[in-house]
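== Sequence entry ==
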Amino acid sequence: MSELVLDPARTGLLIVDLQNDFLHPDGAYSRGGQKNAEIAALPERVLPLANALREKGGWVVSTHFTLVPGKGGEPFISPHLKELRPFLGKGDFAPGAWGHALVDELQPADISVEKVAYSAFYMTRLEWVLKKAGIDTLIFCGIVTNGGVASTVRDAHVRDFKTAVLSDGCAAFSKETHERSIGDLGTVSRVMTCAEALGKITGA
């Protein structure tokens, strides 16, 4: 994989699903007993990159996992997700709700996109807004490495975006799963640390 050359004005830090309902102590996952220290540490770890990219004229792009409310506000939940996370229910990840929002540490995002599946490109406006913004390079962080991150990276790859995945800016619910996924993503994307990406941004 050739070295990534950044034009900050055409680069987006794509923050995958770092939402209150996933990370905050009062969020849906915490209430359901699904806490993870590596995931909780991500906002502080990637904040310097977001700030540096903003200062250089780049873009902060946030994707938001969404449970679309149906009648009476009861969300549509895929059977596989309901089996994995039976605690999810009414009001969780609802559009416009506090739990659906990007965590405070990383706000504001320049572009926000709701998503209903692993990939942020699936049935969303993401590709359209990235093209309108002139973004051709995406630096990926967020959760989970083997789910939303991996699916969105692969979809970006087939759409000819230049991509980089932050090995220490993403996390999964197990270290082994994260490391295996990072290794797999190295076949379609550049992989770098947050410090390496920060150096590229500040030096651009």
Residues 8-65+99-203 form a domain with the Rossmann fold fold (CATH 3.40.50.850). DSSP finds nine helices and six strands in the chain. Residues 180 and 190 are 15 Å apart (CA to CA).
